[in-house]
Amino acid sequence: MFDLNRVMALFIKNSIRLKRNVPILLFYFFLPSIQIALFCICIGQDPKNIPVAVYNAEDPPGLSAEYLSFVNSEIVVQVPYNSLEEARQAVVDGKAWAALHFSHNYSASLNQRRIMAGKADNDTIESSNIKLYLDMSNQVIGFVLLRTFFLAFQSFAQDYLSILGYNPATVTLPITIEKVIYGTVNPSMTEFMAPGVIILIAYYATTALTALSLVLERKDGLLERSLVAGVNSFEFLISHIMTQTIVLSIQEVFMLATTFYIFKVPSRGPMIWVFSLTFFQGLAGVMFGLFISSLCADE
Question: Boundaries of each ABC-2 type transporter transmembrane domain copy (predicted)?
Fold first, then answer.
């Protein structure tokens, strides 16, 4: 028969056991926060200081050097080489993630291409193109480099046309991005992955901690002592669910505070719904941890 007094006695016993081991208690509280902090630090940020081999055949360099000045120096580290073969070999050897090649008459060809517009011959077009040799074994780095070089050329072209007295808007893409329906125009990978990572951490952290605590209690003989004292299995489980629920609530507060207030991950909705979803997901992890502990005899 269910007895609330026995449940409260077990709950107090579980609480005292947690308080006696302060390092483990702190580990329980801060493990999800540490995991989400590592995620925000390591995942989703644009890579920086990417080495790129540059072979500029122009002598002296003209518009090619002007273009290179528009390349984001925080993302790309330009490493000059004396020949195209050396620049490409640097990519093959893993010393650079890409190689840029400017022809010897790049400035003249680019200017001729602007003047002749649609009547430029193939040689002029070929000489005015920047040759890019990419290492796409890492797609994230490859796409970041592509975006960086495209944005740099757009800024360079707008600046060049402004100097010549032309409207710089003529070199922008003829597509206007209006206000987006959902999300943002330039979302970060951290923002995109954060909801799934939060749910995953909330579930598996509580699963592991609940399963481990019950297995250790059985191994120490506390389960048998409780059963001998007249406690039934349902009361035993309820007391542990109560204990783990309190631990879970504190975990969620620290984890969500780390995510949204320390690392400033955007939240576009009421925080109560974020906490509720995360809490119930963690509660499901508690139940799964109870199930695992019933199948395992030791750690």
Answer: 25-298
